[in-house]
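User: structure tokens for this one?
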Amino acid sequence: MTGKYLSDAQAEIVKNQLGRPSEAPSAEYISGLAGLVDGFVRANKTADLDYEECLKAVNANLATFRSILHYPAPAQSLISLASLSSLFSLLFLVGVVNEDYMKQMSASLMPGGSGSLPSA
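Assistant:
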């Protein structure tokens, strides 16, 4: 293991599944990537509280995303963004994507996005 949660080879496998940032996400896409990461983390026995909380956020947003058509159109884009945000937070936590990738995602997903990440 070279990362805290995933090996370099496992991180590369997940990274190869990402697709292009401009592609519209689907519930299957988000669920598939989160499931792949979770399978590796469980196999490696590296889950901790930070990981569990991040995964919980992905699953909560995914539950809302699956019923997106029940929401008015203006809310649908925010629900989609929340789902992607939680997924990429998970991918960042486990080392699949880095800060540069996150800046690229931020700039491509948010109109007029500067690509800068908020600081804690």
